[in-house]
Design a protein that fits this description.
Layout: H1 3-20, E1 28-38, E2 41-44, E3 49-53, E4 57-60, E5 66-72, E6 75-82, E7 89-95, E8 98-101, E9 104-105, E10 121-123, E11 130-134, H2 135-141, H3 146-149, H4 178-182, E12 184-188, E13 191-192, H5 204-207, E14 239-245, E15 259-265, E16 270-278, E17 282-292, E18 300-313, E19 316-334, E20 337-352, E21 364-384, E22 387-409, E23 415-417, E24 425-427, E25 435-436, E26 453-455, E27 460-485, E28 488-503, E29 507-509, E30 524-525, E31 537-552, E32 555-568, E33 571-585, E34 589-600, H6 604-607, E35 612-620, E36 632-639, E37 649-662, E38 666-684, E39 690-703, E40 709-722, E41 725-746, E42 751-766, E43 770-772, E44 785-788, E45 793-810, E46 815-833, E47 841-843, E48 850-852, E49 878-879, E50 883-894, E51 898-905, E52 913-915, E53 923-925, E54 931-940
Parallel strand pairs: 1-8, 1-9, 12-15, 25-40
Antiparallel strand pairs: 1-2, 1-5, 3-4, 3-6, 6-7, 10-11, 11-14, 12-13, 14-15, 16-17, 16-54, 17-18, 18-19, 19-20, 20-21, 21-22, 22-27, 23-26, 24-36, 27-28, 27-29, 28-31, 30-35, 31-32, 32-33, 33-34, 34-37, 35-36, 37-38, 38-41, 39-40, 41-42, 42-45, 43-44, 44-47, 45-46, 46-49, 46-50, 47-48, 50-51, ...
Length: about 950
């Protein structure tokens, strides 16, 4: 039995076992008061959420701070209490049958606490490796985007804030790839954000989708269609906490491969907070305020807004990015139902006006994103027998995207055709008939067809626009079942989710006769394509998971096993996942590990790629002296580039870790991970997309009695035309070791030490064939196509990064300073090369069939041109020298009203030169340049 099948059986048995445990006994009740201390007196806290894990039972305190949890099974629970603006209470309780009262004190979150949390804390997340980043850590880091927050994770290198380029998130990789970011889910308040309906790009059939068409300073105005979402659009000011799951996530999280970034927004009452931040490139301001609405039944309303302006470079005022976010979140309790509704309004704009000094290209680009996101979630506290809660998550978002690109093109001569009928031939005037010397008509078009083909001039000005209207809808329902008996408990999750992604935009638009410039094959034509003609993509997911906890020989054992099934457009993926942990030495040493499959569905761009248009030039007499002889004629062939065999991208994730508790506050965690994805998405050529097509040309041979130019055939042969198609050939193998050593705070010196880092290795390659067509005699008309086997080139990337964060705080004056010392031990890149000196096979231009390429053919003049000269430098390993970077963050509170913060990145401006192993005598400057910023936060109660 395969491992996947075994895990599936385990999951089903675990679910059935949980459903069978319905024994009744005496119940436990937990109640008490949650309060805080103000001016030496206890003050009750209303609207705090008291949550019992793993049962999932919860309660919300009333205005008197009282809470009550009834109908509980006796056993051991993890209790957390959360309230905006206060430190989370996290403790373990052992409940016996009967009524138990537990009162709790919450501390207001500030830099005046004895111990501040300004690093990413390890989170169990169902025994999967994860990190929890608090609001306090976000404030101290002075972040501008979600990507800045990710620098708190183990092994992530330091970088300076930058909003001038699209920012995506990647996890556990030594080299960021589009597939890794596409598989990193960003989940906000229970509902995932989506880039699945993004179709922005000129034509996937010509060169794949590698970039969008607009952006500041040449960057993308938004994330590209085959990558993750652009997280610049998210404000960090309305975030309460961020959890990053890097290991094997729960099966309730779908449509991902790399992991999940889970964002919890601020909700509830909060003092008026104003934040002002500035650095050499970014100015940012944010305002937030939470209200208890009048009356006891109207709930809470939290409002926030954020504006940011960023220059791509301080010397280029014509290139900049702007962002505006507005958010409101309403929360209310309806008896046993806790619910929230939020509305996000967002605006983002990339602008690159013409450079006044650029008189040659007159390049200007721009992109605007405007949209909303309406979401709702709620938890119904049922607490009847084994059924504890029911949770729902709903969201709908709409994003209007408008991008443009304008430029003066030179050396732009190529064919341009408006022909949209396969196999027809048109000339440079609508309805023009062209004949040969025998009087036979060469043009072939349908009656009334309004199409023509012209040669574009050497120089012309082009502006093209792209319009998108992305609509994303999500819904999810989760049942939480829980039973406990003795030292054993089981939690079961059952649920389903649904996603729908579509785009109703107009797509690529350009004035007739001035298309975007061709890249690559000059006869691969552009055509407008309305996106609203593309069907919506709907995805259904079902999941079941059991978390079993017991005590074996006085050692706690946890087992979480689940399975998820996703279905989209006739494709189905089954993804089993399992995590387990056991105490080897009670309270001191624990072992954990897991294995699972995560699946990312193909996006709209992969399911419905552009058609390929081959405009074969038959006659090009456009430079004839006589105007009547200036004839252009082209035949259009149209190819459907869809790949019916495209399947879910599957990532196989495994990890094993040790957790060592070193006293009450100190902890060491070491995790080895190994992830392999062999069928990731990419655009490329395949055997089916190399087409041997007729190639016929005619030349001017004379004129008819009426002066009509007549032509005679010059060539009647064949040549290859290739187009890009969606493929499952991207291969990525990530493995490495992550480590975290939390030494806690040494009270005598008021200083805490936190060491984290990672050694990472990433291997990327292609599981598909690679094609190479060298030109024989300066023309590919007479050229075969060489074929190289899968994984001929494997690209290795390796790095080792360790960061020591030393935090000194003085609670009495609200002062916190953190020195982050990062050692980049090395970054290493090399290529593992198979037989790349000659192809193993070739596609013949004679018959279009695949034939072996032998060693004898390599010395044959008829085939020798197919061999590529290879440089010996391709075997050289590039390895950087070790560097150390110091970042400084300082925060100071003034009377609980004002917080001033300052940071300096690369404190000593260390920029060592690293010699190139490949190009002798050249150097690369390592580390980011010194960078600094200042922030004021005003809190008015």
């Amino acid at each position: 039995m395969h491992l996947r099948s075994k895990i599936l059986v385990i999951c089903i048995l675990a679910v059935l076992q949980g459903l069978s445990v319905l024994g009744q006994g005496r119940k436990a009740e937990l109640h008490g008061i949650v309060s805080t201390v103000e001016n030496g007196k206890k003050v009750p806290l209303g609207y705090a959420v008291v949550l019992l894990k793993p049962a999932g039972s919860y309660a919300t305190t009333d205005e008197a701070g009282s809470y009550a949890l009834r109908g509980l099974d006796p056993g051991t629970y993890n209790l957390t209490i959360q309230l905006i603006g206060y430190e989370t209470v996290d403790t373990t309780l052992v409940l016996s049958a009967g009524s138990v009262r537990k009162d709790f004190l919450m501390k207001e979150s500030s830099f005046r606490l004895e111990e501040v949390h300004v690093v990413a804390q390890a989170s169990k997340a169902g025994e999967s490796t994860a990190s929890m980043i608090s609001r306090q850590a976000i404030d101290h880091s002075q972040t501008s985007s979600l990507r800045d927050i990710m620098q708190l994770l183990p092994g992530v290198g330091f970088s300076n804030p930058d909003l001038s380029q699209a920012q995506t998130l990647s996890l556990r990789t030594a080299s960021e790839t589009a597939m890794n970011s596409l598989g990193t889910a960003v989940i906000v308040d229970g509902a995932p954000m989506s880039n699945n309906a993004n179709m922005e790009g000129i034509s996937s059939a010509i060169n794949g989708i590698a970039s969008t068409i607009a952006g500041a300073a040449g960057s993308s105005a938004s994330a590209i269609p085959n990558s993750g979402i652009d997280v610049r659009q998210l404000s960090t000011d309305n975030i309460e906490s961020v959890e990053v799951i890097r290991g094997i996530p729960s099966v309730q999280y779908g449509d991902l491969t790399s992991g999940a970034v889970i964002i919890n927004s601020k909700a509830g009452a909060e003092p008026l907070t104003i934040r002002l931040k500035t650095d050499p490139k970014i100015f940012q301001t944010a305002v937030s305020k939470g209200f208890h609405l009048p009356g006891s039944t109207w709930g809470d309303l939290h409002l926030s807004g954020d504006y940011a302006h960023s220059n791509a470079r301080t010397t280029e005022a014509y290139a900049y990015y702007q962002r505006l976010n507005l958010k409101s979140m309403w929360t209310r309790r309806f008896g046993a139902l806790n619910s929230s509704v939020s509305l996000d309004l967002r605006f983002g704009k990339d602008t690159r006006n013409r450079n006044p000094d650029d008189e040659r290209s007159s390049l200007a680009t721009g992109g605007t994103n405007l949209g909303y996101r309406l979401s709702a979630n709620g938890t119904w506290n049922i607490n009847k027998g084994w059924l504890k809660t029911l949770r729902y998550d709903l969201s709908n978002s709409f994003t209007y995207k408008e991008s443009y690109h304008e430029q003066d093109y030179t050396n732009a001569v190529s064919i341009y055709s408006t022909n949209m009928v396969d196999g027809t031939t048109v000339a440079n005037e609508k309805g023009l008939h062209v004949h040969d010397t025998d009087g036979k008509e060469l043009t072939a078009f349908q009656n009334g067809q309004d199409a023509y083909a012209i040669m574009l001039p050497y120089f012309y000005f082009s502006r093209y626009d792209f319009y998108g209207k992305e609509i994303n809808t999500f819904g999810k329902v989760t049942l939480n079942l829980y039973r406990s008996w003795g030292k054993t408990s089981e939690k079961i999750l059952l649920g389903a989710d649904f996603k729908s992604d579509g785009n109703l935009g107009d797509g690529l638009i350009y004035p007739e006769g001035t298309p975007p410039q061709h890249t690559g094959n000059a006869e691969a034509g552009f055509r407008p394509r309305p996106l609203y003609e593309i069907p919506f993509v709907n995805q259904l997911g079902l999941f079941a998971e059991s978390t079993f906890r017991t005590s074996l020989l006085s050692r706690i054992f946890n087992l979480t096993a689940g399975v998820r099934m996703d279905h989209i457009a006739g494709r189905t993926a089954v993804a089993p996942r399992i995590n387990a942990g056991i105490e080897l030495i009670p309270g001191v040493l624990s072992l954990r590990g897991g294995y699972g499959v995560t699946a990312k569905a193909p996006t709209t761009a992969y399911l419905y790629p552009n058609r390929a248009y081959y405009d074969q030039i038959n006659i090009n007499n456009s430079e004839a002296a006589a105007a009547s002889d200036r004839i252009v004629m082209a035949t259009t062939y149209i190819f459907d580039t869809e790949n019916p065999a495209l399947e879910f991208a599957l990532n196989h994730k495994a990890e094993i870790g040790l957790d060592i508790q070193l006293g009450e506050k100190r902890r060491l965690g070491i995790t080895y991970y190994n992830e392999r994805l062999d069928n990731g998405y990419t655009f490329g050529t395949s055997l089916d997309s190399w087409r041997l097509m007729p190639y016929r040309t005619w030349t001017l041979a004379g004129h008819g009695t009426d002066g009509e130019p007549l032509f005679t055939q010059a060539l009647d042969t064949r040549r290859f035309f290739a187009y890009y198609t969606p493929l499952n050939t991207a291969s990525e193998h990530h493995h490495g070791v992550e480590y975290e050593l939390d030494l806690g705070r040494f009270d005598a010196i008021r200083t805490a030490f936190f060491l984290s880092g990672a050694w990472m290795h990433t291997n990327t390659s292609s599981n598909g064939l690679t094609f190479d067509q060298n030109m024989q005699g300066g023309s590919n008309i007479y050229s075969h196509v060489g074929i190289y086997e899968p994984r001929t080139w494997q690209y290795h990337h390796e790095k080792s990064v360790t960061t020591l964060r030393t935090t000194h705080n003085i609670p009495s004056i609200g002062f916190v300073v953190t020195l982050s010392t990062q050692l980049n031990l090395y970054t290493c890149n090399w290529t593992e090369i198979g037989n790349d000196t000659m192809p193993s096979r070739y596609i013949s231009r004679e018959d279009g069939a695949v034939h072996p390429f032998t060693a004898e053919m390599a010395s044959d003049d008829a085939f020798r041109y197919m061999l590529d000269p290879r440089s010996e430098s391709r075997f050289i390993t590039s390895r950087t020298r070790s560097t150390v970077v110091f970042n400084l963050n300082v925060s100071k509170e003034f009377r609980n009203i004002l917080t001033a913060s300052f940071y300096v990145n690369n404190l000593f401006n260390s920029r060592p030169l690293d010699p190139s192993e490949i190009t002798k005598g050249t150097f690369t400057e390592l580390n980011n340049p010194m960078y600094f910023g200042f922030e004021l936060k005003i809190k008015l109660k």
